[in-house]
Amino acid sequence: MSTHDTKTRNREFEGLLAASGVPVSEAERDELRKAYDTLCDLADRVRAPGRDWTVKPMPSFAATPRKSEPGE
Amino acid sequence: MIPPFPPTIANAAVKLAAGELTAVALTEQCLARIDAYDGKIHAFHKVLRDEALAAAAGSDARRAAEKTRGPLEGIPLAVKDVMQVENHACTANSRVLQDNIAGKDATVIARLRAAGAVILGIVDTYEFAFGGRPTHDALFPPACNPWDTAKSTGGSSSGCGAAVAAGLCLGAVGSDAGGSIRTPAALCGTAGIKPTIGRVSASGVVPLTFSLDTVGPLAQTAEDCALMLQAMAGYDPDDQLSADVSVPDYTAALTGGLDGMKIGIVHGFYRDDYDTPGDIAAAYDAMVPVLEGLGAGVFEAVLPPLMDFHAVGRLMLPTEAYAIHEEKLQSRWTEFGPLARNRMMLGAFVRSSDYLQAQRRRRELADAVDAVFENCDALVAPAMLTPAGPMDSNEPFPFLAAPMINVPFNLTDHPAVSVRCGFQKSGMPVGAQIVTRRWDEAGALRAAHAYEQASGWRDARADL
Fold first, then answer.
1. Minimal CA–CA distance to B230: which of B220, B222, B238?
2. Which of B7, B101, B140, B350 has its Cβ near the most Cβ atoms within 10 Å?
3. pTM of structure
4. For chain B, which domains are there?
């Protein structure tokens, strides 16, 4: 995300804020806009160029009770 | 006259069994200390005085009839205000939930009652269990640190840390998705354990996230945490993440030293990845000779940079919290405290691809920690990198700047015990975390218990 310039970032931010439908105040909007830059930096950090697609997300949800791990 | 600091759970159990103490007297001791000190500590949202005394009398009656339920029989405990306690409001310290009366106990509370524990009251949490700094703009005022009431307890299990450190209860039930048990345990100088996800049921607990939430105890010592965890752990079909695995005997596991145990110190987290104050870093360094004296082999463990864990955690937590609260954020925005609502609001700005890339990085980080565990039995890492912050901080997003020191083992799902490991020059406590392989809570508790006994740090109390 951080490859975008400030103008693009502003547009992204305003679009995401509008899409949320949440009625933030002007003061809160300003603070959130600053925090958005940090979030963009963090989002860059979790990416890895050329990461193999075999690296799958950690499981987050289990439809059935989890079983013990080997060696327990 | 104000009663003295209460005994540990283990010592109280011995005295109760020997007839030297009754559950009613122990409960009255805690209630008297709440009356004396909670006006300045603000740990309790609600004191269940009459219910607690009735439960204590019931416990004494069972003991007289030789029908005791175990080592928690007659032990007064506090409950973080994100867990349902039957017939009482479960508010998560939010005006959004101030009328949320629980129809039944959370599973973990029901289990503690079944083990004979006395539920003394409901204690403070940062609003909706989101950590960072005290939430002055929530439903209840924030708990203060008993070691210095101008300082934060850390959170989000703020009332648990404060109540245990002030001797207002013997143990407390907290929750931890990004350090919310271990941070207040470290800053308040108590013990606390974040178990493996699924070890303790989260049914009846207000969630912060879908994929990281855990429930665990805070108490004066690791031994007390073992006693509480014994009653709290176990499969629960009402929790989709609950694990159908056997529960070991945690108290039995405390016996024996650390002979032959290989322990890695995560030196890089506090020496390379953050400019940790010297007195805090020195406390971690000083753990090494104590652990070696117990028979452990200690080496320097190298993990990925702390900021890599931080980045994943800081994308995941707000995103999941936002998803949980999205509807109420849209329709009841003004009822949330500004701090909590804006923290959650960050989740609206994380795209699905960002979230999934974070989950993929999480996989790599977990694999890296698992690889280290192939050659060791436990890791020792800081549970705090900075002193407790001031109570009057008004930073909007304090967690975005400094790396979250406790989030790595939420992401990797390894159990971690916070244990007191010294004091800062200011007199405030320092806490470290002892981490083991998934499901090996017993190993973490054993190492923490041995360290507590050998180090001699655990007996000092906050001067109230």
1. B222
2. B350
3. 0.95
4. 9-250 (3.90.1300.10)
